[in-house]
Amino acid sequence: MRPAAARIRFAFAGAWCLTLALAPLAARQTAPASSPPLVYAAEVDAIIHPVTAEYMIGTIDRASAAGAALVVFTLRTPGGLVDSTLAINKAIIASRTPVVVYVAPSGSRAASAGFLITIAADVAAMAPGTHIGAAHPVSGGGEKMDEAMSNKAAQDVAAQARSLAEQRRRNVALAEEAVTKSRSFTDQEALSASPPLVDLVAPTFDDLLKQLDGRTITRFDGRTVTLHLAGATVRRVEMSWRQRLLSAIAHPQVAYLLFSLGTLGLTIELWNPGAIVPGIVGGVCLLLAFFAFQILPVNYAGLLLILFGLILLVLEVKVTSFGVLAVGGITSLIFGSLMLMDSPVPELRLGLTIVLPVSLGFSAVVLFLVRLAVESQRRRAVTGEAGMIGETGQALTAIAPGRAGRVSAHGEIWNATADESIAEGDDVAITAVHGLKLTVRRAGPGGAAQGGA
User: Among 204, 56, 47, 203, which Cα is nearest to 120's?
Assistant: First the structure.
């Protein structure tokens, strides 16, 4: 019995040792494979305004919530609003996920507000043939700033640029010159500066991820993070339909067309009350245009010139000016339209290619509508008391001067007086209406009144 018990104990001990030896291998075989790193990618090709800020901040929040390894914004913009830029930069700085701003593709630029966003990123990258800079602030309302206000605004933005560049260990002097001297920098100038203004130059998005794989970056708070992007899954984030719509509206040409259509629609509604559709469409277009004007650098002197031109076109039909008022109105519309968007950035200005067709077409429609309205006012009334003047009827009784009689007119029987003797059965013409009593006179054959007026 004892040898058998010893053999059993030995067998149990061997099985236990084998189990301990094979446990790590089994664990390795059953452990799930680690998922590939996740990269969020978004493309910003628009003016920097509240809609753009909402899109970029939302992308950063989604990437942080998903635990993404990186957020990459492909940026090309002529600039935008300082407030929206600050909101975007705050989100970049506070993001749990590292943020890359990539100015691409070749031939693109990140000017003004785009420059500040680029240097605020954890990694600033550019494609060959791109440029950044020219970040001198301009008035958002389009009006000219005096020297004191211009210097104050420039120094405020320059301080932001210096702070971002210093914290990101980028070239502080060049960042300040981009604001105070409106300097722009090519990809090679920005990369070869000492210290550099950007971190790397990459021809494509895929090459950008390859260069970033294994790179150690320093976050805004001083923490260092090593990026592991081998085999990364790229998740593209697009604007929602609402953001695309609002972003499209906040374009100078679209806003100008909406303003013109809105003004025209309300003009038609005022001259033809009850049409309803022109009024509704015009009101919606004007509201959308005013939304865009809050974002765009609108010059209110240009807006007043457009309204003044509209007034001159209306007066042209009412006042005999032999075309002088019409020429003045069209000229005012054209110059007002050219002045409407006041910005040093070409993308934010209106050109003659859109101003001339819209102004001339708008002028032609307004002149046509006003002429129709004036002609309708000059026509003889056909309803009410005024519409009865000049109508003919027949005397039902004899009418003596200063005494009342009865006449038939408009299918009705009326009391009537006359300044002359009218026999029963004579044709009469109505010369005045006083309540329910008519003043008439004798009419000739065919309804033509006899005697003078």
Answer: 56
Grouping H, G, I as helix, E, B as strand and the rest as coil, residue 344 is coil
CA neighbor of 116 nearest in space, from 132, 131, 100 = 132
Residues of the chain with pLDDT > 90, as a percent, come to: 34
Burial class (CB in 10 A: 0-12, 13-18, 19+), 334: buried
**Residue 33 falls in which region: left (phi positive, over 0), alpha (psi -120 to 50) or beta:** beta
- Given the DSSP bridges, would you call strands 99-103 and 216-218 parallel, antiparallel or unpaired? unpaired
- Distance, CA of 235 to CA of 243 (rounded, Å): 19
Structure tokens, 76: 């090309």
Would you tell me how many other CB atoms lie within 10 Å of the CB of residue 195?
12
Integer Cα distance of 414 and 191 in angstroms: 98
Query: Residues 308-327: pLDDT tens digits?
Result: 888 887 777 667 666 677 78
In 3-state terms the chain splits into helix, strand, coil percentages (rounded to 5) of: 50, 20, 30
| Three-state DSSP class for residue 226 | strand
| Cα–Cα distance for residue pair 333/321, rounded to 1 Å | 18
Q: Give the residue carrying structure tokens 């005045």.
A: 432
d(CA 259, CA 239): 25
CB 416 within 8 A of CB 437: yes
Per the listing, tokens 């969020």 go with 40
Q: How many CB atoms lie within 10 A of CB 13?
A: 10
CB 247 within 8 A of CB 44: no
Q: In whole angstroms, give the CA distance from residue 441 to residue 75.
A: 84
pLDDT: which is higher, 96 or 148: 96
pLDDT at 142: 44
Q: Would you call 137 helix, strand, or coil by DSSP?
A: coil
- Length of the chain measured in residues: 453
115 phi, psi to nearest 5 deg: -65, -45
- Give the Cβ contact number of residue 127 at 10 Å: 22
The strand order across the sheet containing 123-126 reads: 200-201, 123-126, 99-103, 70-76, 38-45, 233-237
